[in-house]
Amino acid sequence: MEYRKCFVPTCSNNSKNSPNKIIVRIREDLRKKWCRDVGVEYHKVYTQYCCEDHFDPKKDLKNYYQHKFLNQEPRLKPTASICCSAPNKSEESTELAKLLLQDTTTRKPVKRKYEDTIMPSTSSYSTLPVKAGL
Ligand SMILES: [Zn+2]
Predict the structure, then answer these.
(1) pLDDT at 110
(2) How many angstroms separate the alpha carbon of residue 13 from the centre of ligand 1?
(3) Terminus-to-terminus CA distance in the chain, angstroms?
(4) Where does the THAP-type domain start and stop, copy by copy (predicted)?
(5) What is the structure's pLDDT at 39?
(6) Sequence-ordered list of residues with C-beta below 8 angstroms from that of 35, at least 6 positions apart, any chain
């Protein structure tokens, strides 16, 4: 059997360290969707595999028992769905967005008003030396 590695980024299962896991070749018609679901870039030319941790082998494999008992190549059903969406990633980014938003709204233009009140006194003060010279 050739070397197979699970395509899920957070999963380290492969045919070497988990020889007893089902690592199935992802159907071409499911691959785009699954890549999107786990946040992996889709490449047309690649063959990608997924280990049994991310789907329900009994439900999502066409030949689960044939694979188990007759060592058939496992095949996914067209209806198989991956149950590993990128964990917490979207939640984190919305939290960050909230923080950034708060930061900009709490900043108030205080400095401008202060400059305005200073200006008249400096302009009247500049006329003083001329009067003093007389
Ligand atoms: Zn996996």
Answers:
(1) 62
(2) 5
(3) 106
(4) 6-80
(5) 93
(6) 7, 41, 42, 48
